[in-house]
Amino acid sequence: MMKEELTHSLTHSLTHSLTHSLTCARQWFLSLLIGLFLLILPACNKQISNPPELSSSQSSLVSNPVSTTNYTYYLVTRIVDGDTIVLSDKTKIRYIGIDTPETKHPKKPVQYFGKEASEANRKLVERKKVRLEYDVQKTDKYKRTLAYVYLVDGTFVNAWLVENGYARVSTYPPNVKYQQKFIELERKAREEKRGLWGVN
Fold first, then answer.
1. Which positions are annotated as active-site residues?
2. Are strands 92-95 and 168-169 parallel, antiparallel or unpaired?
């Protein structure tokens, strides 16, 4: 009888100890999981609430996928002659650094290749949008705005007229930014007898 009671007591004690150990192990493991969760949660919240900002290039692609420039363009409504135009706001623009044969001068007759130069300028820019680039001096004594003129596709109008023999180089300090470029284009036009340089 004593042996049975002793065996029962030992079995009960062992079972209780094992149960208690398992309970403690579960509690310890659960505490470990909770601790890890509490450590990870702030980092997750920070990552979610503060997503990385787009770089400047990415931002521009998202906000403006077509245009990558900030140029202002103006509509050309009238051609005065080969080197002067009028914009939609009535501003008269004189091309810097070049001179085309006269067609509208009050004291000069229509010069050779003047009509051709005016027509070339008309076909190039009339009813089209252009942007303006200025040099040191912005207006001349006639109150015209002095500018280098560009089409939307990037065509440099002043240079194009010289290159194709419709204009001569005519630079006046301080507006000499593209003087060397114009001189080189005129030299090439002369050599190839383009436009007004085709006279024998």
1. 94, 102, 144
2. unpaired
Residues 6+ apart with CB under 8 A from 149: 85, 93, 95, 125, 130, 131, 132, 133, 156, 157, 158
Residue 69 maps to a domain = no
Same domain, 80 and 152: yes
Q: Please, what's the largest Cα pairwise distance for the chain?
A: 145
- Dihedral, CA of residue 65, residue 74, residue 148 and residue 145, to nearest 10: -150
Residues 95 and 137 in one domain: yes
Cβ atoms of residues 83 and 167 within 8 Å: yes
Domain membership of residue 14 as a residue range? 2-47
Tokens coding 199: 């006279």
Radius of gyration of the chain (CA): 41
Q: Is residue 58 part of a domain?
A: no
Please name the residue ranges forming H helices in the chain. 2-49, 56-63, 114-125, 157-163, 179-191
Whether this model's pTM surpasses 0.90: no
All residues at 6 or more sequence positions from 146 whose CB lies less than 8 Å from its CB, including other chains? 93, 94, 96, 134, 135, 137, 138, 139, 140, 175
**pLDDT, mean of each 10-residue run, the chain (200 residues):** 46 49 55 57 42 33 39 96 97 98 80 93 97 97 96 97 97 96 98 88
